[in-house]
Design goal:
single chain, 156 residues, alpha/beta, Mannitol-specific EII, Chain A
């Protein structure tokens, strides 16, 4: 499964609102809640927050990947946002975050969920890719940046 198969323009924002970790998580959950795959927004939020209690999903280099598994979705859903200002996300490297990729899957879709988390992490480890995402102005440009990077990085 490719990132570009689960991430759509509708659930991407180059202007993710929030000035704290909690506000950014709320904003990106709100964004993805418009998906017909989200059955219960509050349970999705709870799954994300429960995962955050285990360990921060601020993985470093200005990137966070809040994620979780719940039966409150009918299939894997994703959203991506770029914050307007750096956010203290209690990241592992103690650096602020601007790039946030939300991934929520069903409890029964562990394999695809883990594969997508791995793909996202590998892409985001590339400094040039993160820089391109920070420079984009529209959701369409962000999605195209993901598609191009994924096409050049992974076997089909």
């Amino acid at each position: 499964m490719k990132i570009s198969e689960v991430l759509t323009e509708e659930f991407i924002t180059p202007h993710l609102k929030g000035s704290s970790k909690a506000e950014v998580i709320d904003a990106i959950v709100e964004l993805v809640s418009a998906s017909d795959k989200v059955l219960d927004k509050e349970k999705v939020r709870d799954a994300i927050l429960q995962r955050e209690k285990i360990m921060s999903t601020g993985v470093g280099s200005g990137f966070a990947i809040p994620h979780g598994k719940t039966e409150a979705v009918s299939d894997i859903v994703a959203a991506f946002g770029v914050t307007e200002k750096p956010i203290d996300y209690q990241s592992l490297d103690e650096q602020p975050v601007r790039l946030v990729f939300l991934l929520v899957g069903k409890d029964s879709t562990v394999g695809p969920h883990i594969k997508l988390l791995s793909r996202i992490s590998r892409l985001m480890n590339k400094g040039e890719f993160r820089r391109k995402l920070l420079e984009t102005k529209t959701a369409r440009e962000i999605l195209e940046t993901f598609r191009q990077e994924e096409a050049s990085y992974f076997d089909i």
